[in-house]
From TrEMBL:
Pfam families per UniProt: TetR_C_28 (PF17937)
Protein name: TetR family transcriptional regulator
Keyword DNA-binding: yes
Residues annotated to bind DNA: 26-45
Keyword entries, A-Z: DNA-binding
Keyword Disulfide bond appears in the UniProt entry: no
Lineage start: Bacteria, Bacillati, Actinomycetota, Actinomycetes, Mycobacteriales
Originating organism: Corynebacterium rouxii
Secretion signal span: none
GO molecular function, one term: DNA binding
Amino acid sequence: MRTNKKQQLLATAMDIVESDGLQGLTYDSLSTATGTSKSGLIYHFPSRRALEVELNKYSASLWTQALEDIAGAPPQQLDLPLRLKAIVINQSTSARRADLFLTLQSLPDPEIRRIWTDAWQPWSEGIAENSAALFILTLADGLWTSDHVNPTPLSATERQLIVEQACAFIDSVQWDSGRLPAHVDIVFPPYSFRSTSDSLSPSGIE
């Protein structure tokens, strides 16, 4: 698919946010980075606010497309376990700073939050009512943000192990009941946890 001018501008805008934060994204910085005149930018983004909104729409579309590419189908054609596996795999790579900046921006902003809510809704159907699904979603979110909140980043091997364990856990759940399976070993370096039907409790440090 041919990338249009607006998408090219938004891709560059994401790179600016990645390096300089949202405060670094201005007409001047985007004009310099793209070689586009300010009047050309204003044609696509009449205001700084319009640029921020379009940037979130662009990022959300990339996220949902990545999920579909991983799953091989749109969310409406997938059951909950397959959607969860796609989410875990997609979020197994460390978040870009730009993604984190946009996520934090969306929380207090109803208009931007709606963009992400609409993008997320088809993939999250059934998760809120299911304790096992919530467990997996929380794990995926932690995997995505881990390197930004811990002094030691996860290695590629560790990330792969976590994904494999998470997918094995998904396969072990009785999804009709929505309960965590009993006596399933889940290993996340350097800790080993044993799940019970009602909770997770530490079984020791390896």
